[in-house]
Amino acid sequence: MFATIRGEWVRHENESTLQYVGRDLHDHVAVPASPRPVYTLHEHWIFEQLKDSVHPRGRLRRTNVKSIGAAHSWDTFIDLDKLDLPCEDKRSLGSIWTLPSVCTRAIVQLYTGADDLHELWEVDVVKYNHFYPRGFCLPAGRSEVAWLDADTILVMSTVGGSRHQTASGLPRTVRRWKRGSPIDNAQIIFQVHETHLAARAWCDLSVPNEELVFFTDVARACTSQSYVGTRTGCGERLPIPNKATWIHWNTYIACFLSEDWVVNGSTFKAGTVVGFCLRQTPLHIASLVVLCPGHGLRTSLFGKSGLRLLFTRNFQNFVRTFYPNDEGDWTEAEGQMLFDCPAMSISEVLDLGGGCDDAQLLLAIQGPLLPKTLYLAGRSGITWVEGSSCDFDTSRFGAVVHTTFALNGLPIRYLEVGPDRAPTGEAPVCIIACGLATAGPEYNAALAEHWLRPGAYLVFVNNGCCEEGEYRERSAPVGDLHAVAVDLVKRGLTLSAHTVVMGARRNGATVATMCRTSQVFFGAFCSYEPDWYDARWPSGALDPRTASDEEGTSPLLILCGDGRGPNGIDRHELHARIVDKLRMCGYDAKYFGCHKDGSMSSSKQWQIIVGFMRKAVEWAPENNVPHNVVASTSETSIASETV
């Protein structure tokens, strides 16, 4: 049924939501183009991909690792805006895969602007805007690659017909493609069931004189089975849990466990990081040990400089480093605190190598008052490298950390960002549940420009306040959000009717399914990959309310992408089920379908969500909050200049 009506359903829901938000307000919320550089490490080179108002299609440039931090310079090798493409050509830069060791060639994705499809092109990394039309190129599809050598790649692509697609519209096969041959002649060396989500593969060259290829059968989100083999095909299955997040280097593997793991009669608890050595013939685990609690683990890096684990707890960022040896033992180096500044979060981390004493990390830092900035972190301290321009003047704003307490007595720290002045008690406040447990406050031009500047406040709640070793799958539980909302009202910052809660991804589901309808909470759920399945809707998960129980209900705005959902369920169908379920339980659910085919950009998403939040609290940009009244005490105060 949904297959025939989903287009009409989306159009109807979009129209209804726009009427609620107000077209004039929606059109008024214009989001300026904001630079969002993305940094990746390829051998001895740091690559920067940038899209901004000057380079809307995208620019790629690189600099040598050895020169970073000094008077380094960038060499641009792709700038699509200099190719004089016609206006109707919507192609823009996507991901990039470089040829190992030499890094002279690369394969880049070019998004076509239609249905989240992209082409693949082989390019020269040394020459400027040099594409190889007879190189490894693929037409529009959903495609990824992995280099084996200069003349051979592994291809995960939907190009080639239905036999290469899962029911979710993602790559089903891994093919070995030789240079000079058509893609139709590429040999299939790995394949997953058509009802599974996708097939993945990559090559590892860290073991001397040995080439290992890892294959992954992604059955559904966060659930997969991995195998180790060679370029000829898949071999034995890796003996690790299906829901573990793992990283490897050489013959060593580190896993973050999201569920208990029983090995040889010993139980390794969920929420811990374990390490072991992988032995061949037959494939088995040797010397399995617990490295540390995994609470607050943000990202992990594994290479010659050891296993680097970046943690975020209580809005503080620090690194723990472990070194494995041939006997299976792991030695931990002295921990390293990075930034003790809650208004910052680390969006990207690159391991520049080095030994125990001279290892360096390149950090991309950003925050609600700070555009993305590069820093070098080593044993000797933190060094500024370069930064991008800010979208608006932040001199009138500040960031303050407050502490309140949950019902169980545990402290909850939250970051308040807003005008650097005393509040009135009626300021609109947006409480942001930071998604997964490791997420921190990150800069967003639309929210900062159109929520902070007119006089409203942003409040970030992070799950980094749990006791050491305590593991929670979701961050910022609803009880924590409620405690923060109550504390804001007690402090005189706002009124409950002027408070909104925005949850994204998994935490958006938490807000929607667990939060009782009240004057305190309004849930906004924005995600391209909603982690909502029928199994996530147990009896009693939603609290049914009627008009007689409450004076009105809390509206929910769900912003979703286009495409197909998990296990072949079309996302529109999935979203229709969710919205219908919410409405049956008494929620005033609003929906807006943000397409990934170019008809709805990420800026448009934020235009809608900011407009919707203003509507919910009956606030418009011109209704600025006066500068007077209640002063606020704080645990930590950070002026915008120090940020």
Automatic annotation (TrEMBL):
It comes from the Eukaryota. This is Peptidase S9 prolyl oligopeptidase catalytic domain-containing protein. It comes from Zasmidium cellare ATCC 36951.
